[in-house]
Amino acid sequence: MNRHWNKKGFTLIEMVVVLAVLGLVLAGLTTVVGFAAGFFKDEDSSIMRQENVRYVTVNFEKDLRTSDQSVTKVNGCVYIDTIAYCLVDNKVLRNDIVIASYIESFDVTIDGSGSYLDLVVASTPDGRDQTVSAETRLYLRKGD
Known about the structure:
By secondary structure, this protein is α+β, with helices and mostly antiparallel strands. It is 38% helix and 32% strand. It has one helix spanning 12-65, and strands at residues 71-74, 77-80, 83-88, 91-94, 97-101, 103-110, 116-123, 133-139. The strands form two sheets. Strands 1-2-3-4-5 form a five-stranded antiparallel sheet, with helices on one face. The chain has a three-stranded antiparallel sheet with strand order 6-7-8, with helices on one face. The radius of gyration is 30 Å and the shape is rod-shaped.
């Protein structure tokens, strides 16, 4: 007796192989998408930290340039005339209003002769443990 089997369809072995290959492809895609999403999240965090450091630096310099350039440091705060810059809990406050977050260091060093000051602003580390910093020397007017 000669039986003819219907050769349409797939065997169980073929289905298992196809499912295994699909599983590997999907696992690879998931890894790539997860890596890309993490990379973009880290980049956004880094850009935000750069913007915060730049914002503090630019505003401090603007306030200094439009003042009579009287700069003092008291209790960890820097005063430009009546404007106070303070670093509190990784935030820079300008007259008690938060102007930037994720700031680890805000340091102003006034030259002994009073001719310039050095400003150093550094961010907290991001997800890749990288920080952003800005250093600038601001020369003061010696009378008008």
